[in-house]
Structure formats: structure tokens, C-alpha cells
């Protein structure tokens, strides 16, 4: 369930994209792309990105999608039987490992390996459909057309484009939540009993954004509202809420 005012593409198009909240990882990917001169969706091809990052790529029918790497070398294997869109998605996942991770996964503790996989899954969305390029597009009014456009512009499957767009909407909802939090906090703190503010915020989340705060959110709330760094507070919200 999602607030219609958030999920409506018309409303998003008319100016809510500025509320989109980037994660640290997304900022990292964006910084990397800018460093290697990625300025438009047409720059996002396996050939171009791998060449600029000096990453080897081999396409072969039936090969397992994977990457072999050490500190100075990375080579990605992609099953050429995948459609081109899927190949790009696979590339964006595998690319994360040599850029951000260390070591042979077979030798790593299970939890650490799982963390690396989650990191690569998150990376994949930011690398395949980066927000700084998405926000330059003229977005159609209707969601289906919008998702078709993302799929064509970024060369991803329709399902991937849809998941990325849903993520964008969640991040906008988070941005709105953050905005609301800042407004709530602008009430002089000594006048606003923390518990009351917390209850207001929780009911705002439940009623307006249709998100149910995790127990951890409630437990961490008091330290969160007194966090003077708003950006950091917003990021903590991501882990706790969305
Ligand atoms: Zn992986």
C-alpha cells in the first residue's frame, strides 16, 4: 500500500524528484561514474564502462555469470545467452565485487559473503539506472510509459526498470519523511516531549506513507531525534524504516 500522492507519476514529475534521498553507496557509484566521464544513459554500455574501468569481460554461451579478481585485476564472465538487457544487469552486479570487495568469496565467512552479495545487489540498481541520469529525463505521465522509457534508455529489462522505479518512489517517500522529521524537530526541543514527537512521527509514517516502523526504529528514536546531523539521521531512517 502506498500513498497515492507519492506513487502518482504526475506528482513525482511535477517536482518531487528533489526529495529523492541517495544512500552512501549510491553517492559512491555516482562519484565513480562522474570520475570516468559517464554523462548520459548512452554511455552506459558494458563495452564502455568496462573499458573505462579497465575491467576484462568475456561473453560465452552457458558460462556462469561471475567475476574473477584480485587487487589489480578483474575479469567478468557473462552468459551470452542472456538478452542484452539482462547482460547489462549481470555486468552491473559483478562489477561491484572487484571495485568494492576483497578476497575469494569461497574463503570468506558466510555472513561476510552474504553482506557482499547484498552490497552487489544494491550496487546493481545504482550502476544500471543511476539517479543523476534518470533525473535529467523528461518523464512520461503514465507509469507504464515511464517504466518503458527507463527500460529503453538504460537498456534494462522491464522488470528491473519497474523495481528501480519503485525504489525511487520509496526514496522519495523517505525524503518526505525526512522533511517532515526536520519540520517536527524545528519545534523547540524543550517544548516537545520526545515521546510525543515520536508518536506523531510513527503515526505519520503509518497513515501517510503506509510504512510500519520496525521495533528498532522506536528503540533508536530518542538518539535519532537529537542527532544534529540531519543527513546522517535521514540515512539511519533508511535502515530503520524502509
Ligand atoms: Zn555477486
UniProtKB/TrEMBL annotation:
Residues 69-165 form the IrrE N-terminal-like domain. It holds the Pfam family Peptidase_M78. This is IrrE N-terminal-like domain-containing protein. It comes from Brevibacillus centrosporus. The lineage of its organism: Bacteria, Bacillati, Bacillota, Bacilli, Bacillales.
